[in-house]
Fold:
Amino acid sequence: MTIYFYSTRSEYGCFSNFSSHGFELDGEYWATTEHYFQAQKFPKTAHCDQIRQAKTPKDAAKMGRDRSRPLRKDWEEVKDDLMRKAVLRKFETHAEIREILLATGDEEIVENSPSDYYWGCGKDGSGKNMLGQILMEVREILRKGTSE
Ligand SMILES: Nc1nc(O)c(N)c(N[C@@H]2O[C@H](COP(=O)(O)O)[C@@H](O)[C@H]2O)n1
Structure:
């Protein structure tokens, strides 16, 4: 049976990028995968660190989506790999959510976002579900026990 997630307060909320599962990556501490992902839109800038220090993932997302600042030119080419890297590190760092992810077996995982047709499935289910795809890839990596 397909596993849907979206809100951090619902079942499988730990799959959301807004869930409070921090990790170290690129020599810094990130409070959520959302903080990491949004900050990577502005690498090596003060805004990157401001996003890293945002109070909540919602604030980080708002700052990252602020188009008054120039988005890195290669964003479309690098965004999936950056998301993959952050999601993998999150689940490598936290054993309790790693077990929840592994316990989903081979079920399809879908981010049930009504507004996001790239990372989620969108309102009508036609979205790309990239975050769900990445979670399933990370599950496979963790199952094999190596990220090499
Ligand atoms: N909670 C929430 N609200 C939205 O409006 C969303 N689009 C999402 N999806 C998450 O947003 C992140 C990507 O955002 P952008 O590419 O910067 O628009 C990613 O974490 C999605 O899972 N979530």
About this structure: Residues 3-144 form a domain with the Tetracycline Repressor; domain 2 fold (CATH 1.10.357.40). Residues 17-18, 34, 37, 61, 64-65, 111, 113, 115-116, 119-120, 131 surround LIKH6CAM (CB under 6 Å). The mean pLDDT is 96.
